[in-house]
Amino acid sequence: MNDVDDLKVGHNERFSHYEYFDRRKADYETFLMPTDFVMASELDDHRQNSDDWVLYNTDKFEGDMDINVIDLANIYPNVDNDDTNSQNNVLYNAIRNRHQLWPSPRIPYAISSQYSPYSRSVIAAAMEEYMKRTCVRWVPRSVKDYDYIYIVPDRGCYSMVGKTGGKQTVSLGTGCIQKGIIMHELMHAVGFFHEQSRTDRDKHITVLWGNIQPGMQGQFEKYDHGMVDSLGADYDYDSIMHYGPQAFSRNGQPTLVPKIPVSIGVTETQRVVVTTASEISQEPTNGSIHVIITESCKNIRPDCDELVTSGNS
């Protein structure tokens, strides 16, 4: 595919002539503008794609996680394939290392100048949904912000997990300009792994190893409690962080089969769970979005008490 993404946007005629991005343009940091959020409010939600195939990059850890050598050394020794009955089983895949958690709900960002107006509007829609349903605040990076995420149209969809320090890339390339996909990558940036990597996953889902692409079995490993933190949540088939049923399939057949009749895979109506380095204060569970509120969130958002009570915005 050419550097200029040639996918068109479909049914919304206002945006039908826009491309997603153009890598021929100079790449410099910009921020979302009020007009991007106005355009976001006019997007046709039914038109948006919900394909998650773009998350399964064979050259990325678990398909869309940008992990360096040091991170891999920390992850693989902690993989636990046997001890599924431990009292310390992972109940949600939040990163345990507090130094990699953002210290407050305020997370600075910048966005590449290479994105089209349409793509900016979809990114704005994803961030707005994130802020509507959680206490995380995506804010334009200021000169005082050393740590921030930089959203760029690199090859594919990927993100580091948690705060890595300095400028860290979140890639939203070809096929990634979908609200659900963007929220998925932002969840990684906040500090979450994939749902099916939980230590207790074999109680809830069957991995069909024979259907996995050769060499990709490592994408389906589990972590023990030394790598990820338990947030006390039940296994969530509806998590926006869950692989789809044919992830890394070699033959088009399922690689993951739920043990109850439910759907899995990234859509735009799934649960979003967000925490910061503060202690968890509440865990509302009703509503279409699963929100975990922290004390630091409650200090900055006036309707957090209502969120805690209702589980909705």
From TrEMBL:
Enzyme Commission number(s) from the entry: 3.4.24.-
Record-linked SMART domains: ZnMc (SM00235)
GO molecular function, a single term: metalloendopeptidase activity
UniProt keyword Metal-binding present: yes
Keywords, in A-Z order: Disulfide bond, Glycoprotein, Hydrolase, Metal-binding, Metalloprotease, Protease, Signal, Zinc, Zymogen
Group of enzyme by EC: hydrolase
Note on how the cofactor is bound: Binds 1 zinc ion per subunit.
Keyword Plastid listed: no
Annotated positions binding Zn(2+): 184, 188, 194
Alphabetized InterPro entries for the sequence: Astacin-like_dom, MetalloPept_cat_dom_sf, Peptidase_M12A, Peptidase_Metallo
Record-given protein name: Metalloendopeptidase
Source organism (scientific name): Wuchereria bancrofti
